[in-house]
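Reviewer 2 asked us to include a model.

Predict the structure of this chain.
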Amino acid sequence: MTIETAIRVCASSSVTATAAFSAWQAVESKLEEIGVNNDRRRASLIGQCAHESARFKTRFENLNYSAAGLWKIFRRHFASEAETNSFARQPEKIANRVYANRMGNGTPASGDGWRYRGRGYLQLTGKDNYTRYGAAIGEDLVNNPDRAADPDICWLIGAEYLARTRRSSRTLLEWADVPDILMVTKGINGGTHGLADREVLTGKAHAELTGDASTAEWQALLLNAGFNPGPIDGLFGAKTEAARDAAEAHFGVSGDALLAVLRGID
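Predicted model (structure tokens):
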């Protein structure tokens, strides 16, 4: 049970997994210094970054919007729906309009919107953030913005974000200790978008790091033993709890002892 396997079970392919793991190895001591220093925190960083980056595959923001997409998502940046037609499918032009004059960026003519568009596993965006996080990790991201998309820097930025961002008086790393995936998600997303997937990925990573069974494994084992946990979705809901309770009553054991019994059933 290792960091490598934790990353692999969350990755989109062996190629993305290898790149993400090699990068982790290169900055592992720095991640520890930032505060990613226990398995709950490692699992949270891996799971959340995997979700945000389509399983470590996406490290550059996709701004190739149609006119309809621009009007739906960025309408406040356009005078009319008709105006979006002259921007459609032109990512650089779009970025320079929608990210202009905010987050430390200059006017559309400055090119800052495109220069400091979203990069990395958590999509670092805006000159202010490139300045802030570059200083934190000791990299000149302002003059070398593409560096933010390199996997080693992706991990460091992700770790710094979890260490610096607070919700209800705790950092996101401290919420990972609880563990409270909902609060970590709100700190990253602002809401609960993709919560179920984040829970599954964080759970998978933690299971690989510790050897503990993930919720998805519990569900599969319970179903195999004849106790219906509902869908095998990695979420510990009422049906999964009822199935586990029924299995405990049936076999007369709980916890690791029950897990061993379930794993022994063909």
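The mean pLDDT is 95. The longest strand covers residues 166-167. We have added this to the supplementary material.
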